[in-house]
Amino acid sequence: MPLTLQTRLLKDLAVIRCSGRIVLGAEVDDLQAELDDRTKLIKKVVLNLAEADYLDSSGLGTLVRMLSVLRAAGGDLKLCELPPSVRRVLQVTNLLTVFSTYPSEREAIEAFSEGRRSHQTPVEPATAKILCIDTSRDLLAYLSALLKRAGYDVFTSRYLGEAMALVNVMRPRVVICGAGIPDLPTGKEALEKLRQSGPGTQVLHLPSDFSATEAGHAGVDLLNRLKSLLTA
User: Fold this and answer.
1) Topology classification of domain 4-114
2) Domain coordinates of the chain in residue numbers?
3) How far is CA 188 from each of CA 65, 147, 201, rounded to the nearest angstrom?
4) CATH fold of 129-231, please?
5) Nearest C-alpha neighbor of 100 from the set 40, 39, 46
6) Is 134 within 8 Å of 181 (Cβ atoms)?
7) How confident is the prediction along the chain (232 residues), in pLDDT tens digits per residue?
């Protein structure tokens, strides 16, 4: 079902009710535009997901990135009334405790007035350095949150030149490459240089449909592939 948004303003916060699919394309674009518009002055947002029936990697990345933006500005993004499908995605990616979540819209709104924030569970000490390269800010936000919660030391870049410099400095165990990177000008040449940058660096390519795949399935599959690569 296409995404529809209903927004109401309550003093210093915005409540946005999402109905439908939060997925790559017009749906994520519409949600981002609504968040951008409402948070020009207001930095407190409640996202009611009771009628959200699907969340892909790009959609979850948008939520993760906006959470970071709002908290950096002294606000927050609180989620409420999570349907089973969305709760499962957040659980299997270990991102449930990254967000402040509430059973009802009323409780999420009251949490702002009481100044309550969710307590994130600690992550394990970093086990390996990972560099993620993609042109999408949302996808990188998702990958960063997913991998950090899994105990990896994560760096991200949207630019090949910057990524090459990071590889030389940080010597990552794995470079995770978005599907569109090889198609960029000099993309294939840059990836070949990455492969030759050191015997300890491996390149893992994301599937072409990663951004549009249900976030839980995409995340679990990536973590399994990464684990296999590091333990081979």
Assistant:
1) Transcription Regulator spoIIAA (3.30.750)
2) 4-114, 129-231
3) 28, 25, 16
4) Rossmann fold (3.40.50)
5) 46
6) yes
7) 789 999 999 989 999 999 999 999 999 999 999 999 999 999 999 999 999 999 999 999 999 999 999 999 999 999 999 999 999 999 999 999 999 999 999 999 999 988 765 555 555 566 799 999 999 999 999 999 999 999 999 999 998 889 888 888 888 999 999 988 877 777 777 777 777 766 678 899 999 999 999 999 999 999 999 999 998 7
Structure tokens at 213: 């795949």
Yes or no: say if 216 and 93 are a contact pair by the CB < 8 Å rule: yes
What pTM, to 2 d.p., does this model score?
Answer: 0.91
CA angle 225, 228, 231 (to 5 degrees): 150
Amino acid residing at 89? V
Size (the chain), residues: 232
Q: Which two tokens stand for residue 63?
A: 């939520």
How far apart CA 94 and CA 62 sit, in angstroms, is: 16
The tokens for 228 are 């296999």
Residue type, 81: E
